[in-house]
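Re: How this chain folds, sequence and tokenised backbone to follow

Filed under: protein folding, tokenised backbone structure, sequence and structure records.

Contents: The amino acid chain and a row of whole-number tokens, matched residue for residue.

Body of memo: The sequence and its backbone structure tokens, given next.
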Amino acid sequence: MPNILETPASSSPANPRKRKAKFASKHSKKRKLEKEASKGAGASPAMRAQVLSHGIAVEVDLDASEFEAARGAHTGKPGTKAKLGSEEERQRRYTLEELLAQGFEHIVWDGKTPVPILDRSGHIIAVLASQPGSDYEQDILEAFKLFSDAGKEAGLGATAVGGLHKQGGFPAFNIGVYMGMGSPAPVVLNPSFMAGILNRLVGAKAVLRMAAYQNAAFSLWAPRIYDQYKNTRNALRDKLPHLPDNFPGFSEFAAAAFNLGGNVWTFKHWDFLNWPFGWCAITALGKFDPGRTAQLILWELRLVIDFPHGATALIPSGVITHSNTPVATGDTRMSFTQYTAGAIFQWVENGCRTEKELQVANPKAWAAMQAGKHAAYISHINNFSTIDELTASIS
């Protein structure tokens, strides 16, 4: 891989703490391979080779070892006032200008050029993924239409019926399998009155394509972590085959969120119940100017990123504080995300049972698990890949 240092498009001064490297590419071949890979689970070696041949890597002044996770490293830590600020600060409409004044770097992303985000040790801790070819753009437009129609059919407005929630004020509906800490077993997410509409969305070709591409991008940039998701999902399916599967054969994520209403921008938050050393996949949908609407803010990384329609980002949402700038007047934005709860990983690691059940069934295994909790956090860090590892695997 060429070692050419170059500054990506940015509206802020160059920051010496961040290193950028641009790589050459053959765009047409890359698009074709990504298109093929996005139609099934995982990324092919050919796709990996082509995507890794170009892009811009951004290094931030933070190390994955600094991520805050709960003891045992199955979830992040709940957000605190010291971390997220007061309720007013958490829900504040931050602007690009004030973030730049605070020292954030603005990444002017086209939504198509791959941008891996590296920590100080070179781990890829997040990625701004590329996109497949022109037919994918048509699928994304169709997905946006389906989301819009779903909101109208359900009689949704721009704000959630139940009022503000942790992530924002927009209508958000989850489908799939979930598990909270302390729950006895994974459960089916209940989208209440939206069940029929969400089931149709999950079965739509355009939504399937979007979910499949999120999955393929995940497998490309974080293959070891992806394998953890795949193995956990397989164990879950073997033990509880009656549980629903949103995109069988196309995605290893356990759950998906449909964020509707046309005014989707998030408050300052983190999804601490998600697997802290895994990724949440986010795809933006709508008719909006990415230079003024719902720019992605990654607080610990000091980045604010243009996030265009059809673009996909993968972030460790359980340990990185994230939010968006507001949706500008006249713009329309929605989003689609996939994720897996950390408690599902813990349940599978315990032999498909809770810690209390493991303690009764196998006291020695329980004691060993408890003794290893303090080191579990660090043991997961090396599952994040590096650029050198990924390129070496295809050479």
Remarks:
- The mean pLDDT is 86.
- The longest helix spans residues 134-153.
- The two ends are 10 Å apart (CA to CA).
